[in-house]
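worker-03 picked up job from queue 'complexes'. Input manifest follows; three sequence lines, order preserved.
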Amino acid sequence: MAPHRTTSPPSLPALPTPTPPSLPAVDGFVDVSVRLTGFDSFDLHATGMAALYLETALDQVGPEAFERFLGELDAAGGDPDRLEGETSRDIARAIAHLWYLGVWPQLARSVHSALGREKANAPFTASPEAYTEGLVWRTFHGHPAGAKAPGFGTWSEPPPGAPPVPRAAAPERPVEKPETKREGELEEEREGNTA
Amino acid sequence: MTTARVPAAAPSPSDLATELAVVVEPPFHVPRNPEELRLFLQAALTLEHLTIPPYLTAMYTLRPGTNRPAFYAVRAVVLEEMLHMTLVANLLNAVGGTPLVAHSRFVTGYPARLPYSRDRIPIALRHFGTEALRTFLHIERPEYVAEPPGHPSVADDEGWTSIGQFYATIRTGLVRLTEELGEKALFTGDPGRQIGPEHFYNSGGEVFRVSDLSSALTAFRVVTEQGEGVSRTIYNTDDLLFGEAREPAHYFRFDELLQERRYGPHDTPASGPTGPALDVDRAAVYPIDPEAKAAHYPPGGAVRQAADRFNEVYARLLCVLEDAFTKDPAALRAAVPTMLELRDLAERLYRNPHPDPEKRARGLYASATYEITDELLDRVRGLLAAPALGPGEAYGL
Amino acid sequence: MNAYPRPGGQPAGGHRAAPPHHTRRFDVIVVGAGLSGTLVAKRLGDQGWRVLVLEAGTGTLDTWPGHLDAMNTYYAAAAKVPNSPYRPNAAAPSPDVLDLAGLPEGGFRAHGYFVQNGALPYGSDYLRANGGTVMHWLGLTPRMHPEDFAVRRKFGYGRDWPLGYADLEGHYRAAERELGVAGDAQEQSEAIGLPFPEGYVYPMHRIPRSYLDDVVAAKLDGVPVRESADSPGTTLRVVTTPHARNSVPDARYDGGRGYRPAGAAGLPNYGERCVGNASCVPICPVQAKYNPLKTQATWDSRVTLVTRAVVSRVLADGTGRAMGVEYQAYDDPAAPVHTTHTAEADIVVLAAHAIENAKLLLVSRLAEHSGQVGRNLMDHPVLLTWGLMKHPVGPFRGPASTSGVESFRTGPARRRRAPFRIEIANWGWSWPAASPGSDVARLLGIPGDSGQPRGRGVFGKELRRRLGDGIGRQFSLQFELEQEAEGRNRVTVDPRHRDRLGNPRPVITYDLSDRLKRGMAAAKAVSDRVFGLLEAEDRTVYGPGPFSPGHFRFEGQDFTFNGAGHGAGTHIMGDSRDTSVVDHWQRCWDHPNLYAVGCGSMPSVGTSNPSLTMAALALRSSEQIHRDLTELHRPVTVRTGGGGGTDAASGHVPGPAPSPHSRPHQEVRP
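worker-03 finished. Artifact:
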């Protein structure tokens, strides 16, 4: 396009192209994640991370292991506590960890070998925003350290579920005339130095 | 007549089906007495507020971690609009008025028709993109030559033609009334109602108290020049007024985003931006329905609850602002935390697919609707009055 | 320049150019663009002197996009340690707290930039980048107590300062203006006994106390505690801490002229208040916390900053006068390539951090007479205790600490054990236990070692509930102990250990004295009593292990300490050239035109976070440097009101701008 004097820039495409995992796949992943995390689907979508996390999980364990995990979870009535296969259980741990912290964790060494993964078994943050969207902060009505700041002075208020406590008002007076004792100390200081 | 020096995009064929809400405009003449002046200033307060929700919507529909230049550009403008709103409240208080904020008449509802304009320009809550930017250019469009009503060049029956003309009219009225009545008789407001720099921060420039004609005229300069620029340049007056960095006025900042190119140091309104390219990713947004209402979301659903919650906190913000403008300036300390709470609530909505399957299939997301009713305001006022909100250290004030 | 300072554009202030390797003559060379160097350059530039600032690290953080890059690096970092936002730089390496690992049976191993051969690890880092270590400081600015300056005379340990609180008081106020301090002077005066001039208020009202502070104060205020059965009682009191952090400006400041908070460097209209991001260490996202970039934005154009310029030697002539410096310029921090240059000036100021200053003096074989260069390395060893309150306390909110208990900083107990300051930590167990990440991993059954067997793990609503309940009640206390000057704790250089540009890496020998360990035992006893008063569940455990390099046993008890990042004492100041490296102006006894400024000059560190005192000292030294320069130029000097001089070479007449807060020609010391 011309660099300037453009009065009619290209119009917005009707809709942005959807992110790689299809909408239904993301929805299914969110449904499973509700079971793993204890957060409802609104909260999970609200992170904006669902598609990235699905991609991350698929990439890390491979589509077959991921399908097996979904199948076993289904067979367990959707209850991750009843997952018995160690591989699927470790995938459940990893996905929950990802949602809570934005970090894909190390898999158990045995699971790493069993999956035949051709990548380092090292933890990593899925993206900078994944850290700031971690669910862990919401569990105690907090905000991620370094993001979503709540505003000046908000840290003075009792958090939800905490009792109010008496608060001594700030004296906020200018410094008064020093007491004689303090002046004495200052004098001593001066004398000591020059001695 | 109006002569826009900068070509503004013609109003696009509207995609909006809803009737546009209309902002009540004061009569087309220069205010003749203090009572009319207060009416005009209240209208200005309403106008300044009208623009804020569309800007916030554009900002918070950006996908996280993307479009940072756009985010910071819109953010800078929003903060200046908040400064304008506060300065207009100071002006209104200075001449003995009582700002009205927490009232359904204050919040028009969206989409609204841009007031003080002959064109039918819709102001809707849109995701960041071409349509939103075009709307913003209409709002901030520089008007260099429109004279106030009564000027030989302006016909009596012409009606308002621009926001700049509206402000010039108030300014003319203020100056005339000061001459007629004297400063003391006009500036009768309680100085204790003025918002000072200790109450307000992170704004485009510094808020200051208005107590006489000179401070009032400075306030007018800030309000009009930050938006539309200093006569025939792309810059505002922050560097002159506040000793701050020189910034292009709002109109040109939005034009930079639309044209994806910055204005350079020697560019003028006529040259357009010829500076470095600006990285704008119009796909990295959450598209929303510009006519969304909370009632469109199924009752009882999580999206509906979140949308209602947003409107409740928005109502709380208006109550906080009204308290600060009419009772105690220190009440403004709650405004920023409330704004930040709104930011979090809004972002959470925009990231959720629209609950309506048809809209969802079109790729639309849920959104914050900025709907205010008097019932809602009454309920929120009740909650604020309850002591349950905690003792709250006066933060040193 | 600076016609167009936009977000993403050029940083404001001073002159930044490609290294002016062709213009090599300056009035002053400042080595290091951290807090001290930035302040010295500011004062001297304002007084008309041509200042060259050489910074070893990069200037990436100067711009808003650079700052955002640091934010993203921090977000993505696995361990959110103080240096996590700042990119590693092999040309000017920085130490990192992750360089240390504890061994299973006790002891530690060090890798990274430092070579460590002491009984215990020196656990503090610093940052070599424009802005320096203060980029990741917490921002607390307590003054030192008058008795801290004379610990040898009063309590029989460590070393005394050649000046006292009264000599520094005016410079404390000047530093409080420069850094923008929020605090309550009356409270500091009443609770700690700090003398202030009558009517003094800080530039800004105090930072609001956290809810946790109020919870603790409700149980502690006025209660006497004994450190041991035979010791006298000490009365507890929770006291708000002064911060260099933007709060509500105090209209009464400066005789009613008030104060305008300085916002972010690089983005207009931002950071004018702390908004509670709760990440002061390692990075304040809005820059409401002071950093030197804010001062650099107001540098006079006579100040030239050159980044990526590693000073390798100070050059001196046969008479002991410093002539200038040799420095290595590099372009790409990742490439093992540099060019070597020299720059000359009338006065050289080392402001590169205590350990880097000592390293430069050692390498240059300067200031050797006293034999003290590199010795007396100090820090504030930190003992952490942590537990759970009975109800939520809102952890991970607000600045890392907003209040402390100051009752153990002073008094006769110092004869026997190290004094300490207690910080009430607002960020849960983030420091002692890497919460909340470790809490999530533990509940999911994920151990630190992938080879260990995994727990079954908790999922769903139960996981959410248990995390919320546990983390919401976390709190911890940080006991910062005074370390006294000891000759055996030292920095040396060894040609066998070099970094990539061939500069020696610091070799560190470090230990804690028994009086310091007695202080830790007393601190733990006080902690036990405090936890009892708070009816809190104590979860403190100390033992050897990979995350406890600072583990040791003392009198049958386990302890683990951490570094506070407060490195000090390597070019100590004193009364005599035989026993100290610099005089009370921080000027090397052996070299009349070579200054070494910073915490390295401190003979004792008390229990106050040292940056404010360091800033006060830098401002004080700037006055003497100005006088020295004026003296050097006296033959052609035209005296005007507040001093200043002309430069014979350039013929320009510098416009002196005496600061209203300095006392330029007042000699306090004989």
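worker-03 released lock.
The mean pLDDT of chain C is 92.
The radius of gyration of chain C is 24 Å.
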